[in-house]
Design goal:
- The protein is an alpha+beta fold and 165 residues long.
- It has a single domain, classed as Gcn5-related N-acetyltransferase (GNAT) (Aminopeptidase).
- It is built from five helices and seven strands, in the order βαααβββαβαββ.
- Helix 4 links the parallel strand 4 and strand 5.
- The longest helix has 15 residues.
- It starts with a strand and ends in a 6-residue tail after the last strand.
Amino acid sequence: MAAVELVRPDGGDGWLLWRAARLAALADAPEAFPAASAEWPDSGETRWRERLLDPTALKIVAAREGVPVGLVRGVIEDGSAWLHSLWVSPHLRGQGLGDRLVATVEQWAARYGATSIRLEVVPDNISAIRLYRRHGYVDSAFQGELLPGGDRQLVMEKAITSRST
């Protein structure tokens, strides 16, 4: 079995890989990405390219033989990092790829000097919550985005230092 490579899509043709990964995530788990599932599938090339040009964000696609099998995005906002869009293909779940993706964002955030990292997760996504708790994330007092139906996403956070990653 081929190894999974972590790729940082560039501003050239990298948008094609990023789009393929993101659309695979949205097709596999639309309930985990409620806002994105409604917003991104019909986006044009310009919007996908622009997503990759954000200099304050980290974009990683996990690929096996050129096929996306995971992704994650990190963003810096007001001194804190946010972990967004984590997805692992169903046939690779439970094999450590989610751990690699979380650790990659944490290391990147520490290099940026962020003192904490936050994320939002749909409250009934138990496997994702378990992954984040394994990495030391705890429930936050911050209110998450409103979900269809009136519930809110759970915000989790973790203090980070250059040694904690």
